[in-house]
Specification:
Keywords: FAD, Flavoprotein, Methyltransferase, NADP, Nucleotide biosynthesis, Transferase. By secondary structure, the protein is of the alpha+beta class. The chain has 9 helices and 9 strands.
Length: 246
């Protein structure tokens, strides 16, 4: 942590992301009663309690045969802090998602920037669609760290100089890089989250392979851990079905 000038906020470098479950209404029973309304009508809620032992079987059936709508009757809201480039990928997920991100038009952004952790693979090899990533050597790691730190400090200094001169925040923000951390609330249901996880995680159980960028995968892994605690039967069925969203 270091200061970039008198009175300036200290520049911070982070290699991890933050994911907090701030609100939820999500349980395996939500899937069961939503499915049973097809045959039980208004008695579906009562049927949930009477047939609790059959819930796993029903959820597995719905997942396997891709009856997706019962997985939509729940809600999870996450607070996420991550680099801006992660959010640019995240916002491609539109169906079943709602977002509110902090605005650089209305507040001065804090100088928190992304630096890859030591285990982050740095070198890309291969053709499009057949990439592989390898660790990289110490020289490459040193170059990445020095180049990023220099760029971040330079851009944030320019940002603060423009703000001090009276330039509007919405104009001054143009000099900031995508490695800057932003924050948002993201709300989804289990079905939309499963679609997200199927694309943004790499897992040996997946029937359809995916090759996500590591930084958004870090967010996805933390979200999945929260969801698995809320809906363990649904999470297990998702894995058993090859991590294909219904």
């Amino acid at each position: 942590m270091a200061a970039d000038g008198k009175g300036a906020l200290p520049v911070r470098f982070e290699s991890d992301v933050t994911v907090e479950l701030v609100r939820h209404s999500a349980a395996d029973s939500d899937v069961v009663w939503a499915a049973r309304v097809s045959t039980a009508g208004e008695q579906s809620l009562e049927a949930v309690h009477q047939d609790a032992g059959r819930s796993a079987g029903l959820i597995n059936y719905l997942m396997r045969d891709r009856h997706g709508s019962p997985f939509e009757h729940n809600s999870m809201t996450f607070f996420i802090s991550a680099p801006i480039f992660v959010f640019r990928e995240f916002h491609r997920h539109r169906v079943g998602w709602s977002y509110n991100e902090e605005s650089a038009r209305y507040r001065e952004l804090s100088p928190v920037f992304y630096l890859p952790a030591g285990e982050r693979k740095l070198v890309q090899r291969g053709k499009p669609g057949r990439y592989e990533f390898v660790d990289g050597d110490e020289g490459q790691r040193k170059l990445v760290a020095e180049a990023m730190e220099h760029s971040y400090r330079t851009s944030y200094t320019a940002y603060q100089e423009m703000l001090a001169a009276g330039v509007a925040r919405e104009v001054a923000r143009a000099v900031l890089p995508v490695g800057l951390f932003s924050s948002m609330y993201a709300t989804c249901n289990a079905r939309s989250l499963m679609h997200f996880l199927s694309l943004r995680t790499k897992d040996e159980r997946a029937k359809v392979p995916s090759f996500p960028q590591r930084e958004i995968e870090m967010v996805a892994e933390k979200m999945e851990a929260h969801w698995a605690g809320l809906m363990p039967l649904t999470h297990a069925a998702f894995n058993a079905a090859g991590r294909v969203a219904p």
